């Protein structure tokens, strides 16, 4: 794992550490069993994320997204998130592979939105005019079909992945109308 991945994992660990300590020393066997189930699920999800990532920047960004959602950094109360990595969608006979698809639902307002998150490494995006044209065309097709698109450069992600992970979650929370603390 690289330094950024380790940093995200460390911050997640620090965030939950007080709770973990209470659970691990608890005489409540059911609580410890629930903890085992939760950690197994989390480890499995992270393993799948790393396995599906097609680039280091996608791996790092995915860890940040899960970190932001799992630790509820935006204090959202009414939004359910579903993060799907490397999702293929077919539109008008063409197949598009999305780095991340976030489906979000506000349980109060019943609003639903789909966000495409693209992690653009220089090698495959905007290195040539043809690559830039394909990305812009793809964005227009996806937008016409109801997707909201957020693109981040590899340099942005490597420089401050937590900042951009937080930006994604804040954008979803704001656009779906959730208030901090569920107000």
Write the layout of secondary structure elements.
Blueprint: H1 3-25, H2 29-52, H3 56-70, E1 79-91, E2 94-106, E3 112-120, H4 129-144, E4 147-153, H5 154-159, H6 161-175
Parallel strand pairs: 3-4
Antiparallel strand pairs: 1-2, 2-3
Helix pairs in contact: 1-3, 2-3, 3-6
Organism: Desulfitobacterium hafniense (Desulfitobacterium frappieri)
Pfam families: MTES_1575
InterPro entries: Restrct_endonuc-II-like, Restrct_endonuc-II-like_dom
In brief:
With 183 residues, this protein is α+β, with helices and mostly antiparallel strands. Helices cover 54% and strands 23% of the residues. InterPro entries: Restrct_endonuc-II-like, Restrct_endonuc-II-like_dom.
Textual characterization of the structure:
This protein has 183 residues and is an alpha+beta fold. 54% of the residues lie in helices and 23% in strands. It has helices spanning 3-25, 29-52, 56-70, 129-144, 154-159, 161-175; strands at residues 79-91, 94-106, 112-120, 147-153. The longest helix has 24 residues, at 29-52. It contains 6 helices and 4 strands; from the N terminus they run H-H-H-E-E-E-H-E-H-H. It has one domain (3-177). The mean pLDDT is 75.
């Amino acid at each position: 794992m690289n330094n950024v991945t380790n940093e995200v994992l460390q911050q997640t660990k620090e965030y939950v550490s007080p709770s973990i300590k209470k659970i691990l020393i608890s005489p409540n066997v059911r609580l410890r069993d629930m903890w085992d189930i939760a950690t197994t699920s989390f480890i499995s999800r992270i393993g799948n994320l790393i396995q599906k990532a097609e680039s280091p920047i996608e791996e790092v960004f995915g860890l940040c997204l899960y970190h932001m959602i799992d630790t509820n950094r935006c204090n959202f109360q009414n939004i359910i998130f579903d993060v799907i990595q490397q999702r293929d969608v077919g539109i008008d006979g063409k197949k598009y592979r999305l780095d991340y698809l976030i489906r979000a639902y506000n349980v109060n307002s019943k609003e639903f939105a789909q966000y495409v998150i693209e992690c653009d490494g220089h090698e495959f995006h905007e290195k040539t005019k043809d690559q830039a044209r394909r990305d812009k065309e793809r964005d227009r097709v996806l937008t016409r079909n109801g997707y909201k698109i957020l693109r981040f450069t590899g340099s942005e992600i490597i420089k401050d992945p937590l900042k951009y992970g937080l930006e994604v979650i804040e954008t979803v929370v704001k656009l779906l109308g959730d208030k901090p603390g569920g107000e």
